[in-house]
Structures are given as C-alpha cells and as structure tokens.
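dude i think i finally got it to work??
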Amino acid sequence: MTKTTTKAAPKTLPLNQILAGDCIEMMRSLPEASVDLIFADPPYNLQLKGTLHRPDNSLVDAVDDDWDQFSSFGVYDRFTQEWLAEARRLLKPNGAIWVIGSYHNIFRVGAKMQDAGFWILNDVVWRKSNPMPNFRGMRLTNAHETMIWASKSEGGKYTFNYEALKALNEGVQMRSDWVLPICNGGERLKDANGDKAHPTQKPESLLHRVLIGSTNVGDVVLDPFFGTGTTGAVAKMLGRDFIGIEREPDYRKVAEARIANVRRLDSDALAVTTSKRAEPRVPFGQLVERGMLRPGEMLTSPNGKAAKVRADGTLISKDTRGSIHQVGAALEGAPSCNGWTYWHFKRDGKPVPIDVLRQQIRAEMQTRPS
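look at this
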C-alpha cells in the first residue's frame, strides 16, 4: 500500500512512498547519490491569458492551476535551476534524467540542464496520435511534447536497454519520435465530480517505454512532480522502486488509490531482452580449460579457412597466431573479426559456431545459486 509521508528528513530512502510537500524541500531531505533515474514533468508555465472555448462555445479544461503560474521567465528559470541542482545531487554517478515539456518551457529547461552539468543524450519527440485541436485556428495544432534524456555527467555509464526497446518496436531500432496517444477513455483519471483528476496526466505507455529503456528491475525512480502517480504505477508494475513528491493533497489521494491497485509483474514477465554487451564475459580460453574444445582441435570458417586450438586459448594458422578475433581478421584481411561467430567446430560431422559453447557457459552462470 502506497502511503504519504511528511517527514522532513528521512533517515532511510522512502521507497514506494509519496512525500507531501514542495519538491525542492523534499529533494533536499533525501540522501545524495541515492536514485538511478529521475522522470520529471515540471510545470510548463503556459502563460495562458483568458478562457478558451470550443466552436460549440463549451469551455476547454485548460491548465490554469496555481502550480503552473509564475510571475516571470526569471522566476521560472530560478525555480528550474533549483530543482535541477537537487536532482543532479540525488542521482547516482551513472544515473540519468528525463524531463518532459512543451514549447513553453522545454528550451529554457534544456539550457538550465546543460548549465547544471547534465549531458544531453537525446531529445525525444512524443508525437500525440490524438492531440487536442487548435480551436482558435490561429496556430498549428500542438501535436507533440519534447522529452530531454540526459546522463548526470558526460562520462556517466547510463542504463540503455537497446535490445529491449528494439523488441518493443517489432525488431526495428527505436527512433527518437514516439507516436503514442494522450490519456483518454478508462486511463484518464477522474475526480469525484467526474472531471479530470489532473490536467496533464501522462499516458502509462510513455512511462513504460522510458522505464524499460533506461532502468533495470530494482532501480530507484524519483518523480519530483508526481501528480496522479503515472510514474509510480508503471514503476511498481515493472518491478522498480519509486519515490514520489507531490504538494497537492488531491493529487496524492488519487495517486495512492491508483498505485494500490497495481499488481507487480512476476519475474518471468519482468525480464527484458538484453544487449550482448551486457552479458557476462566468457574468455575463449575457458572453453579450452573445461574441455569443451581440446588443444589441437581444428576450427574452420564458413569459407574454408582453418586454425588449430592451442592450450593457452589462442589459435594458430600457418604463420598467424593470436586470439580467435585476431586470427580471423588476419585470414580475412579485415580490420576486425567476431571470432565467436566466425569460427566453427565439428559435432556429428556438422559445423557448429563456437558461440554455442559460450552461451552454454552463460546459461550456467545465470542459473547458478547466488
């Protein structure tokens, strides 16, 4: 059960809780370098003037709440600078941040992010498949928002689950323009009067893609502008821990009820496609040590090149000797070679890639008791 806490200085990380209060003050109460990812949906500072009506004269439920009101760009910039400073303090060295905004604020936020030391990795355009039309007909229909994805610093080794996002995209590399619908229907949360519980509720599909792509199971995700808890709901479902910060009691109430009804996926469902780079390293020599390949055994390439396995895990072919990669590259006259897929051994008279043996060892490593 998600609960709200108003403690000013938690001694331990308040995982899976919603902190009640100002985002900057609450972030200051959290320990340094304690979170893996921050997803921030700050006030957009829309600068709306007057009311907006549809062609049938009905009133548009626009964002005119007090929390989105700032007296000047300078005031908004100072607010942005302060919360970003705390966000960067809270991130682990290899942590990252996503910030979403519209044309009203995202360019100012992006500049402040760079000033604060964040290293921008991508800007992602969320293209809304069902945007609200421009009722006055004076501008283009605003059909997208922009997200900035940045690491804590230039050298940070941020999480990027490339293969998982590729799998989400039917095997095609994920692009930086995401076509997803805005909240509507059953996903749009309502208050007791049947009105929108929050004017800028984000779709769960958006957070699903962000968390699958840039976090791992067990990571801590902070949302300093928690609203009605989309980040927390998706984090809980995907096996991530969350910390929410929200000053508005009505939003917290909705978020608590929402998250309480979320079921965490089981471990099999939480597993995602991983990159080969993330898999455990297995030296070729380990295959020789374990007798999976014997010294003196001949390996062949698809085009008939051959090399002999040596006792120290190197190969020799004519006047060339070295690693499986070096010998393969030399025989092909190429600058590099993936020896794991290039070299084959014989089993039952058929050539089999030596990578099959490496995968056997990796499977053992994953099932071995900790």
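The first strand starts at residue 3 and ends at 5.
im so relieved honestly
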